[in-house]
Design brief:
The structure is a single chain. The protein starts with 6 loop residues before the first helix and ends with a helix. The protein has one domain. Helix content is 67%, strand content 0%. It is globular and about 60 Å long.
């Protein structure tokens, strides 16, 4: 087993991570007629179902002064799908690549990054379609789109931190991925995607506001929707970046600590 890769070595190996991400997308949809287009079709269909159910079935509307519900919903869903897909697939990063784990010289620290990059690649396609749709509907973020890379980096870092933790633990306890899927479903409903903070008493909204994904979703809405007047509060931004950086650093440390035993278990 090769020694753990350092952060500079991981950065220098970014081309390998990109190729792993591309291979993951190709393998996921290999044999299908539409190929990787399914990566865009699936979230688009789910977003359409959410829009129909909440807009026409439940007739949910946004509080006064906020963007149209459909715009808030679609932007929030786009951010969430990127995070959820990266975390869910990241949990299987090591167990799904046993053939690479047993290669002496392969830097295993690259494996959890590949599902995150794959999710971001799909996300960029979803974002392009979403921005085009919003522009056609008259909701154009303008110069605030320049903020979007910041929030894309935020969701990527948060997802990568979870991916390192889950990928390492999944090797030794195969219930980890299933538990993560369940917790993601609960987390979705705790995130302001189909609801607004204005619907809750101030003390409840304050607690819900510390959800890291609330910062990401609110940031996406600020970047994409001109009706959103201000970016996420500074204290939420500081809290998010501190949490995400600690999660990522601790995840990498845990991964490095356990990696020596991966080959024996797999």
């Amino acid at each position: 087993m090769a020694r753990p890769a350092t952060f500079p070595e991981i950065w220098r190996s970014r081309g390998i991570v990109l190729r792993l991400a591309q291979a993951e997308l190709r393998n996921r949809y290999s044999g299908s007629a539409l190929g990787v287009l399914w990566a865009l079709i699936q979230p688009a269909m789910v977003m359409a179902v959410f829009w129909f159910v909440f807009s026409y079935g439940l007739r949910v509307t946004s509080p006064e002064g906020e963007p149209a519900f459909v715009a808030r919903l679609l932007v929030g869903l786009a951010a969430w799908f990127c995070f959820s897909e990266a975390v869910s697939n990241g949990a299987h990063a090591v167990t799904g690549s046993a053939y690479l784990v047993k290669k002496v010289a392969f830097p295993l620290e690259l494996l959890p990054l590949a599902p995150v990059i794959a999710a971001v690649m799909v996300h960029l396609g979803v974002l392009a379609c979403l921005v085009a749709g919003l522009a056609l509907g008259g909701s154009w973020g303008g110069w605030r789109l320049l903020h979007l890379p910041l929030y894309l980096a935020a969701v990527s870092l948060l997802a990568a931190g979870f991916a390192y933790w889950l990928a390492a633990l999944q090797v030794f306890q195969r219930d980890v991925a299933q538990t993560a899927t369940l917790l993601l479903q609960i987390w979705f409903w705790m995130t302001p995607i189909v609801w607004s903070f204005a619907m809750f008493p101030p003390e409840v909204a304050t607690v819900l506001g510390w959800n890291p994904m609330a910062y990401v979703v609110d940031g996406y809405r600020y970047a994409l929707l001109p009706e959103v007047a201000a970016p996420p509060a500074l204290h939420h931004a500081l809290s998010f970046w501190l949490t995400a950086c600690l999660l990522f650093a601790s995840g990498v440390a845990m991964f490095r600590r356990l990696r020596a035993d991966f080959a024996d278990v797999l």
